[in-house]
Amino acid sequence: MTHSIIGTSVKRTDLLAKVTGDAKYVADMNMPGLLFGKTKRCNVAHALIKRIDVSKARALPGVKAVLTHENVPRVLHAGSPHPRSASVTCDQYILDNKVRYWGEGVAVVAAISEEIAEKAIGLIEVEYEELPAVFTVEDAQRPDAPLIHDREPGGNLVLPPAIFTRGDVEKGFAEADFILEGEYEGGRPTPAYMEPNVCTCQWDGNGNLTVWISTQTAFMVRGIMAEVLGLPLHKVRVLVDHMGGGFGAKQDLFQHEFLCALLAKETKRPVRMEFTREETFLGGRTRHPAKIWLKQGFRKDGTITARQARVVFNSGAYGSHGPGVTNVGTSALVSLYRCENVHLEGRCVYTNSPIAGAFRGYGVVQTYYALDIQMDEAAVKLGMDPAELKLQNAVREGDIAPSNHPLIGHGLEACIKKGMELTDWRNLRRQPRKVEGPIRYGWGVGCEMHGSSAYPGIKEQGNAIVKMNEDGTAVLLTGTAGLGTGAHTALAQIVAEELGLKFEDVSVVHGDTDVVPWDIGAFASHTTYMGGRAAQMAAAEVKKQMLKRAAEQLDARIDDLVVAQGDITVRARPGLRMTVREAVMPKKGIPAAQLVGTATYHPTKSYSFAAHFVEVRVDTETGYITVEQVIPVHEIGKVIHPVAAAGQIEGGIQQGIGHTLYEDYQIDMRTGRSLNANFVDYKMPLAMDMPPIKTVILENAPDPGGPFGAKGVGEDPIVAIGPAIANAVYDAIGVRFRHYPIKPEQVLTALAQLKGEQQTA
Amino acid sequence: MTHSIIGTSVKRTDLLAKVTGDAKYVADMNMPGLLFGKTKRCNVAHALIKRIDVSKARALPGVKAVLTHENVPRVLHAGSPHPRSASVTCDQYILDNKVRYWGEGVAVVAAISEEIAEKAIGLIEVEYEELPAVFTVEDAQRPDAPLIHDREPGGNLVLPPAIFTRGDVEKGFAEADFILEGEYEGGRPTPAYMEPNVCTCQWDGNGNLTVWISTQTAFMVRGIMAEVLGLPLHKVRVLVDHMGGGFGAKQDLFQHEFLCALLAKETKRPVRMEFTREETFLGGRTRHPAKIWLKQGFRKDGTITARQARVVFNSGAYGSHGPGVTNVGTSALVSLYRCENVHLEGRCVYTNSPIAGAFRGYGVVQTYYALDIQMDEAAVKLGMDPAELKLQNAVREGDIAPSNHPLIGHGLEACIKKGMELTDWRNLRRQPRKVEGPIRYGWGVGCEMHGSSAYPGIKEQGNAIVKMNEDGTAVLLTGTAGLGTGAHTALAQIVAEELGLKFEDVSVVHGDTDVVPWDIGAFASHTTYMGGRAAQMAAAEVKKQMLKRAAEQLDARIDDLVVAQGDITVRARPGLRMTVREAVMPKKGIPAAQLVGTATYHPTKSYSFAAHFVEVRVDTETGYITVEQVIPVHEIGKVIHPVAAAGQIEGGIQQGIGHTLYEDYQIDMRTGRSLNANFVDYKMPLAMDMPPIKTVILENAPDPGGPFGAKGVGEDPIVAIGPAIANAVYDAIGVRFRHYPIKPEQVLTALAQLKGEQQTA
């Protein structure tokens, strides 16, 4: 089947608005009487609030309202879908009389200017009764650890341990020729989206609440807001147009959104609360710091006989997506490399640390980092090439994925093979490594697989409404969010392709929960896959109605009609044709009809694959690691928009380089105080830090459930880059790092230690 | 069938917003960089523009753009549906080098303030070459009349004469015992809506145009704007939320909307153009002044043997809805009172007068005024009671309506009978009339019938999308407009009733052409009838899906389920029940689904009926007529919202009293100059001028095509009140007026003349 619109990189519909500054983000919204909200944050990590005095703040001219735990409803909430999902924990009050981490909000103020609000915050006096605090998962799991939430003693677990078992792991280890065992650790990167969290709330006289918010999950916001505030869903309207990124974290409702709504209710005026950059750290979400103990048994031929792991995620002060991350991250280890005997245990532990949440890769970044490095270690031990070993063990068609769905296609094998071919891998690895004085070069490979869609079945669904205008142009109504990834351009391509229209004849309506059909939100790499499939199905429904009209007018059979680029032709009857516009315009004897198609799509789980081949440069004098080049090979089924897909891959690699080499949000391990909540001290790779990336996208394993066979690509690229870098560093300098970020001082220390060992040996 | 929501006067959903001033009208919209547009209007009635000099206006600081006929596209437009309807004429250029009536726009200015724009308008110099002008239909139809448009000589007809014939009118007159013949005349009332015409236009960088506009017909605006500006439909977004009335006139696009869009395009800034009150006269639309020559033959028993009429409508300078009004107004005379031999001719004539357009009653006000007065005259001649004569001849079930559809129910008969019963009519008329010194009292009756929906078939359709939220609340997406009549409250009632929800659990999304399904607009009394039926059908579709889920969960048959007020019960199985919310919430084994229903409804034509019984008070010393009381009896099928329906009736009566007794927009018959374009000189009845109105609504002739049997009521009440007043005046003082408005000086003149005749006799 040939396509005229999908598979081409059409100009993104939001391009001009964004480059000209025309695009309106939530913080650009202004309205008469707008008030500005600010949050008072605590400077202790674990404490009871003994006294909170807001009298001076209230007395400040320009202050319109002050809220504390004493005058807001005591309602638990969570950044959860509605109805509540097992993926998240509902354990946070809007405001509590207890604080659980340094920087948690204890009061909010609404004032006529940001400056006055800020000043009022400074006038609030809080007296704390400090409680013992724990910052590491080890401390939090001790029998005598202070309880962060009101659970049973020893109860700092966010959820009971998650166990995943296949086969007989003891038997598997017994059959092994050798066993590898190691501890791996992931740091605390943050999503660091360009657009800080922001929302504006406004009530009308009928008690209807409008929320403008930068969110990935508008309908979840609607559901949670409605639940927490005690409103029916149709009295909450959530609006979001453009967004400056989310990376998973903007699935959550944080704390300020409810307070913003309550401030607006009390003042009867619109209130905006916008995070400062510092607050995106303090009040935001991080990736879960993780410790992974991983043990695998190998036969001499490279077969993996057993795999055992204990994974512990640090949830910080609240549960957020801890359950989901624990389940997804841990269960990911049943797959990627085939193994019949697996036993995995995942834990998620409360600590008095910043809140970890959903973040691109969702637990898998951490566990595949461990797995893929250990595979590299095994290759060394086996005297095999690591790419060959991974190829040999790569999951393939029919294997059971972590989601218990059979995999489609030999995607991972194909990615590894293609990368080996493009790098001339066998030759490359046979040759001695490049050395330039103190500079060492090395190559590594990292692999991953990632599912599109989160929990197929009960809750997950794509919805779409397509309506065709009377001139044959069409509008897609979709609840999917546009985080900045070009999702709505891809969806418009899908609709245009399916309807046989020109791309520019399709527009997209989104971002208004009153208007568009329900959507679960933009996460789990499923927007194009699931929202796109629903859009395709709705478009197909309209196409059927449209072709019926055309067939009547052309006196032809519907099955003989071909429609593309707005033109309808008839098979085997050249010259007989009409435009889509002509087909739908009412005319004598043919009444007008508003052609509308609706569709709901319940997805299965579809897996995408990638192998990243990476060259690094290690300066053995400074310890500084540079990524020299990346050859990422991805299998994502049919590509809808090649440039956007490549953009996702490049962006994921940039973010992956960040957490592997630089990014780590740190707290003082004595007080819990935030140490680097800004972009000077929290270093991210900039455009100028980026290596050349030669992205290759395969389209050999389309998913029959995706639109035209498309699968997700949002999360994949951030997963494989990390272990590829760590493995390349080993290749360059012979030092095995089992954590991220790998910092220059650690490189130097390790090199010194290695030298010592070599001298001793 | 019992109903729990329709038929009750629920609180209007827009009530609080309107009384608190929260409701945003187009003129309340503000945005950064907003410019203000103003129109330069001509002070000649018919002329060529020899020279137009805008240099001084352009040079004025703060002026951003000036447009004249020299720099706008020369495109014909009309306030027409898209595709063009036979109801309207497409004969006006955006700006022309010729002006055709006093007050027509010749240039527009956009400036940073209204004051500067106004000043700039004053700086524009225009030199005219005046042409001979005609203001009456008689002058315009003379063979040597100046041509107002570029038509054939003698071509001041807007359209060829419209002929309607039944039976043999010559034979009918031959069979008559006597013949009545008379000339009747209607003046030039204006709709005088509270909210002046206003629109704001804004372009984005992708060439998408957004238009905020006070309109009854958002999708027509979209279609015409797109056509005139050469855009596809999906690049034009038309937004309208609240409206301060339209009364038919706001179906048109006028002249300033295109210019507003062009000013916005040129300045790359949003531009608002808002009429002053004076401009609502100068640039607005009036009812068509009409002259009706009517001749009927009667038998002694009251049977009408023949009816012949020549109707001439004065279209003013442009055609607007002239064709539709001519056809509807003229053809109305085939019905109301039964007659087998009918010959009607309708003409519509251009004059150099203000533009006449669509206005509540749409031509029927004029022709039924003539018919119903002549029936009163016939009753006098026959020595019959006029109500009895009308009852005897009233159309009834199965009679063919002007639309060629058979009528449903004995609606008119029932209205007349009910009114006679309530007024104790026979006694009333038998008694001598009340006299208090110079004050005379009298009673009259007027009748009418009016169709819901304009042109059933090709173009006319109602559309709706209903989606149910995951908590069982629902949203209706409708393209119908809310002119201020409470239409969306009625539609929400219909959806709630059909879905079995509480009224407050349904919300309505409207007023955004990008979002809602196509709608023909709010006119022809069809919003509740047609849009409501579509809403009901879409709701029924959702109900089916919802009950399927409930039936599965209750293990019951769908047909046994009963749903009302949000509760689902099972027939013959008491105790077995669940809520709608429970039915739609996803749960284990039952996936979520976005329940969506869509519907398109192609209406037939449904007729409503009314008889108005009116008492007037005539002061024979001042000539002043006061309406003392009105007993309007309406048959409108099932009533959805009794208070809103009664509100329509009362408002129509107020407007009808206005045009019958006071309202007449006048021009100088020598120059064409507007004489009373303001609310001081153009007198309308105020609340304090209103008589007691005892509205009675019958529900005995429901329309099977309407939602729950509902029919329209928007236009009916303005039609019957006029002849009822004129007939009552005759009853009071014995003077027969055959025109409106009936002014005090005319009453005095007529009384003097009558006295003279009586003295002579």
Automatic annotation (TrEMBL), chains A, B:
Membrane-spanning parts: none
Coiled coil: 537-564
One Pfam family this sequence matches: MoCoBD_1
Molecular function per GO: iron ion binding; oxidoreductase activity
Superkingdom of the source species: Bacteria
InterPro entries with a match to the protein in the record: Ald_Oxase/Xan_DH_a/b (IPR000674), Ald_Oxase/Xan_DH_a/b_sf (IPR036856), Ald_Oxase/xanthine_DH-like (IPR016208), AldOxase/xan_DH_MoCoBD1 (IPR008274), AldOxase/xan_DH_MoCoBD2 (IPR046867), AldOxase/xan_DH_Mopterin-bd_sf (IPR037165)
All residue ranges annotated as the Aldehyde oxidase/xanthine dehydrogenase a/b hammerhead domain in the record: 20-132
SMART domains (UniProt xref): Ald_Xan_dh_C
Keywords: Coiled coil
Entries under Gene3D superfamilies matching the protein: Aldehyde oxidase/xanthine dehydrogenase, a/b hammerhead, Aldehyde oxidase/xanthine dehydrogenase, molybdopterin binding domain
Entry keyword annotation includes Coiled coil: yes
SUPFAM superfamilies: CO dehydrogenase molybdoprotein N-domain-like, Molybdenum cofactor-binding domain
Requisite cofactors: Mo-molybdopterin cytosine dinucleotide
UniProt-recorded name of the protein: Xanthine dehydrogenase family protein molybdopterin-binding subunit
